[in-house]
Sequence to fold (227 residues):
Amino acid sequence: GDSVTQMEGPVTLSEEAFLTINCTYTATGYPSLFWYVQYPGEGLQLLLKATKADDKGSNKGFEATYRKETTSFHLEKGSVQVSDSAVYFCALADSWGKLQFGAGTQVVVTP
Amino acid sequence: GAVVSQHPSRVICKSGTSVKIECRSLDFQATTMFWYRQFPKQSLMLMATSNEGSKATYEQGVEKDKFLINHASLTLSTLTVTSAHPEDSSFYICSAASTGPMGEQFFGPGTRLTVL
Fold:
């Protein structure tokens, strides 16, 4: 079945550092790919998405490119802020619209 | 826009009792709602998909008689955990999509259930 694997956390880094969270997937067909963010005490929010190969999703300084050849959708941000501290989930949606989530990566940004 | 609420946010109950969790789409009509379960430091696991006016579709391994789902209107879905036991303690999250299961899902803040 479909699955999503993302790097384990926590990832701790200083403000203005570069952030990368790796995400790879296995799927039949051509899924859509997503990054969700969960801030402390809040529900998941869609951060960005890509629906086909080579698409780049971007939002709030975060970017991820749908790489079919490497089955990856790595999340990057060039300069993180303390307010980016959260748990980040990579996910794919199958042809039925069902979301399959990775385990989540906690990111802690220190001043 | 696209706000989804859940009630209650936290609930503690005794073993053997039933607990109802509500999921509401506040500013849009949700043709499809999803229920997830999240264990500590783990991912969200889809439990079931519900479409307004029809029976829910449960994922493999989820007991439909234990987790009753009702989607009676386009803005409300409920999850009832029947005869709850300590192993049912978890974080339950709902999401709602306005354009069917393929539409973007908007997530509620979750409900923390603790069964004593």
